[in-house]
Amino acid sequence: MKKLFVAVMGCCMACCLYAQPDMKSLIEDNLRFAEKQYAYMASLLPKDSMPKTFSPKTQKLVSSDIQWWCSGFYAGSLWYIYEYTGNQNIRQEAERALQIIEPNRHYTGNHDLGFMMYCSYGNAYRITNNPAYKPILLDAAAALTTRYRPSIKAIQSWDSGKSFKCPVIVDNMMNLELLEWASLNGGGATFSNIAITHANTTLANHFRPDYSAYHVLDYNLATGQVSRKTTAQGAADSSAWARGQGWALYGYTMMYRFTKDERYLNLARNLAGFILNNPNLPQDKVPYWDFDAPGIPDALRDASAASLFASALLELSTFVNGAEKKQFVSSAETMLRTLSSGAYRAEAGTNGGFLLMHSVGALPYNSEVDVPLTYADYYFLEALLRYKKWYLD
Ligand code: GLY
User: CB under 8 Å to 29, separation ≥6 — which residues?
Assistant: First the structure.
């Protein structure tokens, strides 16, 4: 009986494996799907606005103004789709989106300049080499540095308000890529010095002994000390908000790429270990919205965190070897396969044109809960193209 069971299981597993597309086909299928979905999204978008999400209630695309922190992801996704497909209509739409967000080059209202301008203009410059994009990126980097606070050796994320005096959130690691790029592209060493100083301060203060990240640290500008370690979007101050872990993983991997500072690489490896060896990471590797969410295993999943993990793990895999490399690549592959399945990927012509369903923006505020989000799509596309570049081409 046992032998028969094993034989049948073996056959089923072989059939399942056989039924899965290879990664080349999976990437081709997703990018061709994206080409059509984003053309559909473009047709729904109100003039001069950027996509934000899709409302399950009204069944309509929800858009935002250009100062929303996500305003660069639409153009960024379009550039990734163009890079793969060469579709000129997609490129034209990407260029149109860039023009709309250009005034953000001087925006100083928060720390999100990297998300807004590097994911959009950074990709545009990388792909086209159009010199007109360069001063825009350099202006955006300069705008970001206006938020650097020497007394705390970090960039202030949000303005002070009722809840925080000088908040620095782990997400801020992502904006450092714009600064590193600026230093390498004529902006001078100050940009990189600020990025490195911020990364070192975050490394010293933002992580727990188990290598999970706090979300928000509130600093005292007078003393330079951390006054509170807390959360805004996580389940609790002491919890591991899933996307926050992804921002940290991606951020330190990216900073290692620029600096080759082994401390950043070691932290990134440990952050990956926290995520991948976590007993609360489901087998399909799309995390709950918080690793400590109440109600696991019935808590909501966050596709955006899975996209981000996949993209970050693929870059990190290029810096390590052996079993660790294998684990990072195969985990990213599982994430991409799960996200590509009907459980997460929308049907064509639905979902407001977004590729993925089931992300969580800010559950404690009941904002963007179990909906599509621009950055879930952006990092999904990025991860697919990274897999192609590093493991197929
Ligand atoms: N604050 C950016 C995010 O929601 O991940």
Answer: 21, 340
